Amino acid sequence: MRIIAGKAKGHRLMPPKGIDIRPTSDRVKESIFNVLQATVIDSIVIDLFSGTGNLGIEALSRGAEKAYLVDQSPQSINVIEENLLKTRQTEFAEVIKSDAVSAIIKLTQIKVRADLIFMDPPYGKDLIIPTLEAISTNGLLKKEGIIVVEHDKDDPPPEVVSELVQYRSKKFGNTCVSFYRLREEA
């Protein structure tokens, strides 16, 4: 697991020791960022279920303005902070120890609005729909913003959740990545 492009290109990220996480593979990450391309530059990014900080740090390396990295595991928080130091991205990031829905509410209260939101929740825990609903209900996503959801191919999220609409999906073996944006108003 490494940073693929940008200022921190080539830096290897540390995985947490002793806990079971499933970091986004370099192949999947490269495909995600190929889809996002220029939308990353100067963006506000939220990396929910951050794990190692992999996606948020990649976005910072590629020119994102600020990243909020959210995880509730103390071990993951330590690893995220180590990876931010290692890649010299600390000044552009805020690490939040919280569950995703509470973090969404907190970020909304401090007037954060995201251009990009990454979600890579643990598989089989039914976290995708409530998290997407919280993002939509709280108005966390900017009008032209994008949400990237990584999930098991056998457990696809619905095409529509509240005001969010899936507009693209890509499969990589057992992993699938779905892209959401706000529904266009009639």
TrEMBL record:
Molecular functions (GO terms): methyltransferase activity; nucleic acid binding
Keywords, comma-separated and alphabetical: Methyltransferase, Transferase
Gene Ontology biological process terms in this record: rRNA methylation
Phosphoprotein among keywords: no
Designated name of the protein: 16S rRNA (Guanine(966)-N(2))-methyltransferase RsmD
Organism: Alkaliphilus peptidifermentans DSM 18978
Taxonomic lineage: Bacteria, Bacillati, Bacillota, Clostridia, Peptostreptococcales
